[in-house]
Amino acid sequence: MTGWNRNPNRPDRGPVVASVTLHVAVIVGALVLHHLTFAPAEFVAYEINIVSMADPDLPEEIALPDPDELVVEIPDPDPPAPEPEPEPAPPQPRPDPVPPPQPAPTREPPPPDPPRVDPPRQPPPAQRPPPSDPPPERPETPANVDINVRMAGLQRDYPAYYGRILAAMSACWRSPPGVEGVSSTLRFEIERDGTIRARSIEPFRRSGNGVFDLRAVQAVECAGENQRIPPLPDDIPGDRLPVQFTFTTTGFRE
Amino acid sequence: MIGPRISPGPGSHSSPRRAAGALAAFVAVALPLLSLAAPAKAQVVEDRFPGVSLELISEGTRALPFAIQPFAAPPGREDLAQRAENIAARNLRYSNRFQVLDSLPSSITRGSEVDYALWDQVGAAFLLTGRIEVSGNRVELVTEVHDVIYRERRGQGRFALPGVDTPEFRMAVHAASDAAVEWATGEPGMAASRIVFSRLGEGGNRELWVVDSDGENLRRLTNHGNLALTPAWSPDGRRIAFTSFVSGLPRIYELDLATNRERQVPAPRSGDYITPAYAPDGQTLAFAITGSSGRSGLYTYNIGRECCFTTLIESRNEDLSPTFSPDGRRIAFMSNRLGVGAPQIYLMPAGGGQAEILSPYRFDRRGYYSSPDWSPRGDRVAYYGRIDRIGWHQILISEVGRGNRILQLTPNQSGNNEDPSWAPDGRHLVFTNGSGRGGATSLRIVDAVTGNTRTLVSGMDVKYPDWSPSLARLVTAVDDR
Question: Where would a tag sit more exposed on chain B, N or C end, judged by fewer CB atoms within 10 A?
């Protein structure tokens, strides 16, 4: 008879061979599958908004207490106004012969601060650099190009690298004059060497303004040139990084 | 090394892919394409976008770095180049559109070619170059603006430079600065402009004075020895209309700046002739007549053809301070028709007709609004006033057609801010600030986009500033190539 009892003195090699074969098959299969499935890398998608540094200077939206629709936006004192005067003279009636429709209204000595103004924000770090500033280095992070980066999301896998992308886009972005309150979204891929192939650039959501959309494409092309975007970090998987990028221009205090 | 996947966030991971192997790869590639074909499903697809989503939001406040290459000059003219460079650098700062990198060592460049890689390294987005050229008696400033990032020249101009100590020298450099702003941004500058205002002098008189947009060249224009008030520039920048009491009664005069001649607008009926404003045609003057036997109103007169006295509105109310929209089709003005203590701002057709209120009037909160000035961009009207019954006057802006939103440009505790007037760039405003002691006021300039403020003149009693149109065409021949 044949069988595993044929020579009870020798260990039977059949199961071992089968096991090894099976394992090798599984590993090879896994590797093959691996390469097939990993073509584009997967990332967490999240939004990064960058806004101008000048923000703290901007007039603020003030919510009035009444339900009326009126919206008043109020700035902070730009240079903190040097007004100590505790005894502000009530504004003089204008002596001019060109009268406002009525004599200047009588006012109590002003408690000059209506209570609904938000506490002043800090003035921004000087927007105009002193002339003696040494020429700055090529921006390494978005901070050097006067932008704030806000990131929302569960993961911040490569924030420094995304900052470089944003800095490059910011340098290349030329908003067309007079176009406000629009937004244009593109998709493209950054190659491992940091370049962007023109044919990978696809409009995803157009702004409705042809010039604005064109400038967006130009900005992406420009960002992919002159090593403006560094090569992908080594630990980013995949051959290229898919990016969805939105250019937004807000309107007059929108 | 690629074994452990980046752990998926919500909605970012398409679970079928792991199971479906090669098919999943196709799906991943196909998804963006499908999304282009079916924008209605964009939101769903976007959630699965296998990459990073970034957004660049510019609020109009983005200040791109603008470098100034040290101006070049032939031997012996270096100080001319230095002066021109300093004026241009300050103008670019005052535009509030750029971070200016200037006062760089002249050794930073060699040769005449622009070294884009170098300026890119310095961090500049734009570059201004300038050189003085002399041929015989003729001295010219040649400027260029380059986009450092895109590595291309955006514009070049040639500006005749008059004698270095004349106001025209500064104005020529102002014109060059405005050209640089326009080449870089596509939007107009405001350096080549002046502000006229009424200044209190000896014996309680007020005369008209004028100052350059950078606070230089302050000088007196009129010598009436009486009250000269509410000046207004003509659209070509060559004339100024104003009210004067020189004859004993308030009448409107027009001053020709080139000849220094004045002429009076005829007064066919009694009353006080005040608050003149030019229509964009430069011929039609609109103004108010008040106090005449209970009849007041707004009127126009064609000062070019010296004819055609026309009534726009007439009533028992006071309607004052007309200002034209840049297309000349509408007029904004102030009126006390809703209450003597609560003047409001109204808009109406330029030929007269139904007026609609622009200021945020409410029956229980009437406010006080005065002295409108229509923006050269056409979409906004600036005025001053306050929303509450008490408080300082502030500079306010309403968007035409959106009267329920106002933008307040001056902080609440800064004293009385009044009489705003738009710069030709449509983003800066000059106004009076009464926070100084002893009745002194100052003229301040605010940028409606960034909120940056600077003082133009101070230490004197000033009223009724009016910002000129661009004077670049008047004072210097610009030769664009």
Answer: N
